[in-house]
Amino acid sequence: MYHIPVLLQEAVDYLINPAITSPAIVDCTTGGGGYALEIAKQIESKNGRLICIDKDENALEYSKQYLKEFEKNITFINANFADLKMILKDLQIGNISGTVLDLGLSSFQLEKEDGFSFMKDTPLDMRAYRKDDRTAADILNEYSKDELKKIFEDFGEIYNAGQLSDAIAGKRKQQKFISTNDLTNLIRDTFDIPERYVFDYFAKVFQALRIEVNNEMPNLQKALESIFEATCDKGRIVVVSYHSLEDRIVKNFFRNHLPVKEKNKYPKKKEEKKQMKSLNILTKKPVLPEISEIKKNRRARSAKLRAAEVCL
Asked: What is the rounded average pLDDT of the residues 41-53?
């Protein structure tokens, strides 16, 4: 299978509000179509519409075949979910009733695409969207030491980010970084990391680079703002994240859009009050995978699901 969807039933249950009769759902990270298949099954009888977005052309080609049974109700878009506002405008869609984002890497990306995994030697690319210009190799070869240090600290939470940045800057004077092995070999040559911890260190370094390459944090913030603006009353927003930085952005966004309490001792009459869009948080604490799911899919172990409903 292209990718095993995490928290599948929980995500779809939160996403689809049965009170909405003609749903228009956006799967912002379609991948292999795991979520999309279950969504399509549930909205077919309601003549619902599903928009499947992914930056990865390989993912979309796979999911088009995987979802062929429901193709009349699905529109596939190869784009960055940060551009959702423009995507909806181009499709002439005014409001949507639900959006799901699975922010993790797909199994296909880790196993088949260049640069995402440190388990094999491939070009240091890491671009999920091939139309982007900047690769992981570009970052390693061109960023200043201070810029590299900030990336590794902020996005990888690496304790010796300064030493790593110094080592990278020294190495690239002799030879440019081209492949994943160039980076992992440098780390092994520079630091005396016990073997039982070295894969965890590699994972943090590669995560930090991937986040920077794909501009993941600003894109997530921009996407959430567009989703909130486009979602109709009682529409749902569901996000599955895999590390604390993503989860914090989602948690804060939901909290920042809670209903504003009336502070005036003498509030305006009901008919004079300005209608304000807000969010009702459906998951007071993040939903986590069961042990049984983690045993079947180890990549689920760090997943956190948060969901909210739009209120007018």
From this structure: 93
